[in-house]
Specification:
The protein is α+β, with helices and mostly antiparallel strands. It is built from 6 helices and 11 strands. The N terminus is likely disordered.
């Protein structure tokens, strides 16, 4: 088992090493001579970069570091790799193998990087994916690879709350916002705060180069309506097409994590981070 540098961080590779070496040899013989003035290197990278669904959904107006934009890709003739597309269980396009020239643009200047992907096992599920680019281009590629990964694993809304650590129906929002009884000024302030974060606040955070992450803490003795208020907010968020995640502190549920553990919060944050949509996390019994 040997270690190679990965464009998305260190990674261990085993049986994929031989395939990687063959792809690297092809890159040095066939690709690098096209750019004699460039100092290219080969790096392992995330296989989501060759996921057809991620590439088709990629927002090409999104700026990468240095105001670079992904502009598409072209298949290359490669005598050591076959261009083969894979499909998931729903028949949707998934990963592909082959050699490709990925194009990135900045102020009218195009930069091409070589991406090669191949199976290294007969089962068809194990891939080794390589990118060939200049070292100074790695921050751009790293950001691009992260976005491909997010697009592959992003959840889509199903008009129901995602439950972590509890029964699927542990939290079903049934309360409408107009059914919530609070002092009018307080009620308006709460909705304005939540709604403005999603419609305006995110852009403010992004301009300040901060992660758009807003917190609200509801405190009070049992029976004061905290859960009802969360139910109304969750129902409102679902109606907007947002992702809603509920973290349960249930002590026992078959097949689920037990009790009020912090890893449940980590799981919720991970789902929200990979979501293609604005997300709301509801956490009850924070003190637990």
């Amino acid at each position: 088992m040997s270690a190679r540098y990965n464009a998305c961080g260190p990674v261990e590779t085993g049986t994929g090493d031989l395939r990687m070496e063959r792809m690297e040899g092809w890159a040095r013989a066939e690709w690098m001579p096209r750019f004699p003035d460039a100092a290219f290197n080969c790096y392992l990278t995330n296989q989501t970069c060759v996921h057809q669904g991620a590439l088709s959904r990629y927002d090409r107006t999104q700026a990468l570091p240095g105001d670079v934009h992904f502009a598409g890709y072209d298949a290359l003739d490669c005598d050591i790799l076959a261009e083969v597309s894979a499909y998931d269980y729903d028949g949707e396009p998934a990963y592909r193998t082959g050699a490709y020239a990925y194009r990135f643009e900045r102020e009218g200047v195009t930069v091409e990087v070589l991406v090669m992907s191949a199976h290294y096992a007969d089962d068809g599920y194990h891939y080794v994916t390589m990118v060939c680019c200049a070292e100074e281009f790695l921050p751009v590629w790293h950001a691009f690879a992260n976005e491909c990964h997010r697009l592959v694993y992003a959840l889509t809304p199903e008009n129901e709350v995602i439950i972590i650590g509890g029964h699927r129906h542990a939290f079903v929002p049934t309360v409408n916002w107009d059914e919530v009884i609070l002092p009018p000024a307080l009620k308006d302030d709460l909705m304005t705060d939540v709604e403005s974060f999603f419609t305006k606040g995110v852009q403010v955070y992004q301009r300040l180069k901060l992660k758009p992450f807003r917190k609200l803490l509801l405190a009070g003795v049992p029976g004061t309506g905290k859960t009802m208020l969360c139910s109304a907010l969750a129902k409102w968020a679902l109606a907007q097409g947002y992702l809603v995640i509920y973290v349960s502190s249930a002590q026992r549920e078959p097949g689920q994590q037990h009790g009020a553990t912090f890893d449940k919060i980590e799981q919720a944050l991970s789902i929200a981070a990979n979501s293609a949509l604005p997300s709301m996390i509801l956490l009850e019994e924070l003190d637990a």
